[in-house]
Amino acid sequence: MRIKFRFFGVSISGGAGDEELEIAAGATIAEALAVLTSKYDVGFPLKQLLQFIMFVDSQPASPEQVLHDGEELIVMCKIEGG
């Protein structure tokens, strides 16, 4: 299945920006991000990336959520400060 990734506050090297990747049917967000980090340097280790804010089709999501074909996964770096 194909998933579209969008990133906010995450710098990706190696030519990737908003990206569509093929992942296994029934994959979780964590598994999809593992595929992405194996292909591109996202500037963060997978363990840290899994702590970021995530949305699937504009709905809050967690790393354990199962993805479906054609969904959009948005990953946002947490912003702290005041």
CATH architecture tag:
Roll
Q: What form results from the Cα inertia axes?
A: globular
In CATH, the homologous superfamily goes by the name: Beta-grasp domain
Order of helices and strands: EEHHEEE
What spatial order of strands do you see in the largest sheet?
A: 2-1-5-3-4
Helix coverage percent: 10-25%
Overall pLDDT: 86
Which percent range describes the beta-strand content?
25-35%
> Uncertain spans, ≥5 residues at pLDDT below 50?
none
Question: What would you say this structure looks like, in words?
Answer:
This protein is α+β, with helices and mostly antiparallel strands and 82 residues long. It has one domain: Beta-grasp domain (Ubiquitin-like (UB roll)), CATH 3.10.20. Helices cover 18% and strands 28% of the residues. The chain has a five-stranded mixed sheet with strand order 2-1-5-3-4, with helices on one face. The chain is globular. The protein starts with a strand and ends in a 6-residue tail after the last strand.
How is the topology of this model organized?
Blueprint: E1 2-8, E2 19-22, H1 29-39, H2 46-49, E3 53-56, E4 59-61, E5 72-76
Parallel strand pairs: 1-5
Antiparallel strand pairs: 1-2, 3-4, 3-5
